[in-house]
Amino acid sequence: MSFVNRLFKGFKPTGSCCGKEEENIKDSLNKIAIVGSPNVGKSVMFNRLTGTYVTVSNYPGTTVEVTRGKTKIGDNEFEVIDTPGMYSLLPITEEERVARNILIKEKPDIVIHIVDAKNLERMLPLTLQLIEAKLPVLLVLNIIDEAEKIGMKIRLEHLERDLKIPVISTVSTTGRGIDILKGRIEEYVRNM
To answer: What is the DSSP letter of 59?
Structure first.
């Protein structure tokens, strides 16, 4: 059985995440989901993209918090979703289950997979799962400054060519690379 078939095996959609009026507003916006393992800078990146407007709520039927906000990039307005930390699309924890459900049920227009550049090899399996699941992935190598300090040289153009997805390096705590990320998001939306 292929990975994608295992991923969706037994998946049954449940009720919606919000009231009808709020759901219609959310459905009219392009969606960006931020995914990645814990401690890679997802929340800092979320704050960089959204500023101060956020809504934190429990995902239906769970105690897992999901943070949502809005942003405007170029001429497009987006709903940005900071998903709980995950290591795989085959969930073991409730947090991973919630993150996977957001990706499957809410069908974001862009999935920003944030990884710790120092631990790229350990984090690429989730990137490959997201690509195999045919999700619209942008790979963000965050904390690139620390990778550079220990002498790592990562050729973004080679990763892009091999993975066939956009790859951007950032330092979310300082804002380095955020404008490039926004530009790649604009480009991605134009080509949708």
So the answer is: P
